[in-house]
């Protein structure tokens, strides 16, 4: 048979010009997207934006993964729709109430005209395959098609949301450049300032705004202050100046004119390539959320609060780290010679791991993208009045929370992350220019085997110089020569990403 009507016509009975036109359009769109990514990559390389170029490569990896998922769904579609199960099995954990018995005997809800247009000819034949056995298919062709579209929409929305967050967050961070330039224009030598200046701690603006007041007498009020601070003036010039000087005096004392702002931007760009991807554990969350989308559970309403609460917790913690740095100085000193210098330490972060904050932000952005992608997918695929969409009193709060998360993460949490996570014990490899990074990684690889061979005689002890916070002397950072091993006391060199 040619098929069951015009909807079921196979390629055997389709005009060749139709096949040619459809293929031309699909190939043209695909090549256009590929060329766009290609020229974007060339532009980023030309502008020496290696971190953003690597993020673009990550996007290409995600698109390749989507292509592989698409291929798997297409190849195994015939096998999946021929998996037959008892009708009773399909009545458990439904997102909508069971429909009336369909005349087809398959127990499937009657499809709308829009859905029927998407049915393939062989899909109708395979429905009869299970009906002949008095069973129903595990998943219909139409269901596979909808799942296919949802996975694609989810990945695209996640990439778009991640890029949007980074763009707006970076825009705010770049406003801090005027603070960096203002500090540089002071044109003072750090060592001389430390020798000839006396700073009264409790009169310092950083201490007065971060520690004195309620926070000084109550740890609880300190956390409340940190919670509220993330919503307004999350980072002030006094905060930036104090944290910048603490970083320089700990990690690059020999280079007082170190451009901390430029380093911070490079570090954020490096982290972006991790945020834009979809890790394996995020796909696990997708599966769990799809499983829990049961009628009357309102799962997607309650799930919306997970990234919301986590975002507030992350912002509060980052603000509290700044408060702790101020508290440490205020409790130890009344007056000091020189400028106020905070002491970076991993002890201020969860599990002594500043990088865990990036994992939380990654999850927050993905979960928020999941909420928006699911909403628009249901809206377009089934309509606003679909039972999966839920009641209006649950939809509106979800959308408001999603917008709030996107704005707060872009303009407060992400800039806070970029600044505060530099207050760990170690600094990131972004502190070096690209050519220096290449030299250091090459030196580390070359000496990895040599270090193991020479370890027995005990003659090589470079770690001896690394027991304090002196760190690496950055005075000659602008030179092409890689930093000698003896100066690498406080840097974590990783040959990975």
In words, what does this structure look like?
The protein has 497 residues and is an all-alpha fold. It has helices spanning 16-46, 50-75, 77-81, 113-116, 121-131, 141-175, 177-185, 190-196, 205-210, 214-217, 219-229, 237-251, 260-275, 280-291, 299-303, 305-332, 356-382, 392-420, 434-454; strands spanning 84-85, 136-137, 198-200, 335-337. The strands form two sheets. The chain has a two-stranded antiparallel sheet with strand order 1-2. A two-stranded antiparallel ribbon has the order 3-4. The model is unreliable at 1-7, 102-122 and 455-497 (pLDDT under 50).
Distance between the termini: 56 Å
Strand % is under 5%
Rg, rounded, reads: 29 Å
Major sheet summary line: 2 strands, antiparallel
Overall pLDDT, averaged?
74
Which series of helices and strands comes N to C?
HHHEHHEHHHEHHHHHHHHEHHH
Strand order of the largest sheet: 1-2
Short description:
The chain has 19 helices and four strands. It is mainly α and 497 residues long. Helix 2 runs antiparallel to helix 6 and helix 16 (305-332) packs parallel to helix 18.
